[in-house]
Amino acid sequence: MNAPVHPIEHLHAELSDLDWITDEGRIARLSQDFSWFSPVLKRQLEDKRAQAVVRPRSEDEIRRLLASCARLRVPVTVRGSGTGNYGQSTPLQGGVVLDMSGYNAFLWARDGVARAQAGIRLSDLEKATRPLGWELRCLPSTWRSATLGGLFGGGFGGIGSINHGPLASRGNVLGAKAITFEEEPRLVELRGSEAMQLHHMWGTNGLVLELEIALAPCHDWTEQIVVFDTFEAALGFGDAVSRAAGIVKRELCVLSAPIPDLLRQLADHLPAGCHAAIVAVAPASEPALQETAAQFGGRVSYRRSAEEVRAGNRTLLEFTWNHTTLNALKVDRTLTYLQSAFTAGQHLEQVRRIDALLRGEVLMHVEFIRNIDGHMTCTALPLVRFTSEERLQEIMRLYRDNGVRINDPHVFIVEDGRAQGTLVDGAEAMKQRFDPHNLLNPGKVRAWGGGAPV
Ligand SMILES: Cc1cc2nc3c(=O)[nH]c(=O)nc-3n(C[C@H](O)[C@H](O)[C@H](O)COP(=O)(O)OP(=O)(O)OC[C@H]3O[C@@H](n4cnc5c(N)ncnc54)[C@H](O)[C@@H]3O)c2cc1C
Question: Which long-range contacts (CB under 8 A, 24 or more apart) does 67-70 make?
Fold first, then answer.
């Protein structure tokens, strides 16, 4: 008697015209993301692998793949560029990794709105919109390689969130085309808040094919480092610039000592032991920025015009958000990080309190943003000198005890990573509608059977 054919072999045979990646090393690499930032996730996820990776080039290829996988009950984990931090695109139960990077067309941009296929790189999307006078409203510091679908499925926001809040702020995402994971897949256009029920769900309740997003008028951003003798002065500067409505900016972060010492590529501009702010500002706002720096005893140690940034191919933006962590990890692999959200209006007080409580062990990295309600606040991606998983939990408890929300970056379950500990409203209904067989990235949502020890 013949041995039963493995479902993956069925897929290879049925869909032999698709672009399958079969090399074991590449499959292993395409099964991982940046979860190694967390010593906890590294231990839990490093051996997780897909059984196959496929890179579809058209809607028809995606539709045929989903139809076959639904019939054979093969799990599918969607991947953009794999820059996520929590094993978001790492398959826990094998199956197929669906690499969206080949499904990447820019569709159109007009009147401050753009539409593109989900696998487009954010850098390519902005390259297409800039000549028309528009830029993306918020983008992760990984925008060079990260995809639009990955930002929507796994991201939060980042550069530009100081103006437009996180991606989830109403009006940033206008619509999404998604496809159902069934034997006969259907295409569905979702608008506004309905589309957002798939946002930050790690591709567990819907596969997004296209996104329509609102844009912002573009500027030729000047990048600057301002250095300070004390953290209090740097924080005061950050607060003043964040609240100065007349200063047009795209990015503003504050790094407490000794983080600047860890940014070795910028060592010429960061005196040893300094505290620093990194700012991207419109040229017309530079005098006002300098005045504010002087008011807080700060000194501009680095300035590059947009033209110089382009020509030099080095941007300070790649030292902000989680790139601060990445650059610090290059120097000291014993570090890890946290993600915390402060309460608007109390944010400076909370930053000071946490800094005083944990100084030396937790190194403060503050990003000024508007929150989802439009209030100016800050979020933090502090570096942590890792000693043990127990101590990491204790530190997070201290944050929570002090009224600071933690979005835990050391878990691979959607609910556990959210400060609220629950799914967004409507996520469940979307699951029924788009993934009735529970085959999308299974194991990542507690409500749908995830959370078992791995
Ligand atoms: C150094 C560094 C800096 C970072 N900075 C930021 C930052 O500033 N802001 C921020 O928000 N994040 C940041 N991140 C996290 C990550 O880079 C972003 O969220 C990025 O947008 C993810 O895009 P990606 O294409 O790599 O997605 P992936 O990592 O490939 O996927 C992310 C999630 O989205 C899902 N997904 C991907 N495509 C689709 C689709 N078409 N339909 C449905 N689900 C989909 C995947 O299944 C996965 O769960 C950072 C990460 C690193 C390593």
Answer: 67/182, 67/183, 67/184, 67/185, 68/10, 68/11, 68/14, 68/15, 69/11, 69/95, 69/96, 69/181, 69/439, 70/181, 70/182, 70/183, 70/185, 70/437, 70/439
Q: pLDDT band for 1, please (50, 70, 90 cuts).
A: low
CATH 3.30.465.10 range(s) for the chain read 102-218
User: What are the CA-CA distances from residue 184 to residues 66, 68, 70, 450 (Å)?
Assistant: 8, 9, 9, 26
Q: CB 11: neighbour CB atoms within 10 A?
A: 22
For 102-218, CATH number? 3.30.465.10
What are the tokens at 187? 């295409």
Query: Which amino acids bring their CB within 6 angstroms of ligand 1?
Result: 33-34, 77-85, 88-89, 100, 118, 140-142, 146-147, 149-151, 153-158, 202-203, 207-208, 321-323, 326, 441
**Which of these, 414, 446, 420, lies nearest to 88 by C-alpha position?**
414
Of 374, 346, 378, nearest to 364 (Cα)? 378
Give start-end residues of each CATH 3.40.462.40 domain in the chain: 222-406
Q: Considering the domain delimited by 222-406, tell me its CATH architecture.
A: 3-Layer(aba) Sandwich (3.40)
Question: Using one digit for the tens of pLDDT, what is the confidence trace for 47-83?
Answer: 999 999 999 999 999 999 999 999 999 999 999 999 9
Mutate to test the pocket of ligand 1, among 37, 45, 83 (most ligand atoms within 8 A of CB): 83
Q: What is the pTM of this model?
A: 0.97
